[in-house]
Amino acid sequence: MSEHMHRHNKEGPCHFSLMSLSATKRLGFVALPLLALWGLVVWAGGWPL
Fold it and tell me: TM segments (predicted)?
């Protein structure tokens, strides 16, 4: 067996870190999917906004 362990370059294309983004982009990445999901639940339930 090879003693070499496979390591990805942290700056490479296979590495993505939310902490490398600005605070607004991080908030958007978290908030937008949650808002979309909430909207679908409200729409599917027929509840008034």
Answer: 27-46
Q: Which domain holds residue 19?
A: 1-49
Distance of CA 36 to the CA centre of its chain: 14
Closest CA to 25 of 17, 35, 37, 15: 17
**Based on the structure, what is the number of domains in the chain?**
1
> pTM of the prediction?
0.51
- For residue 23, the one-letter residue type is A
The tokens of 24 are what? 């607004």
With beta carbons less than 8 A apart as the criterion, state whether 40 and 34 touch.
Answer: no
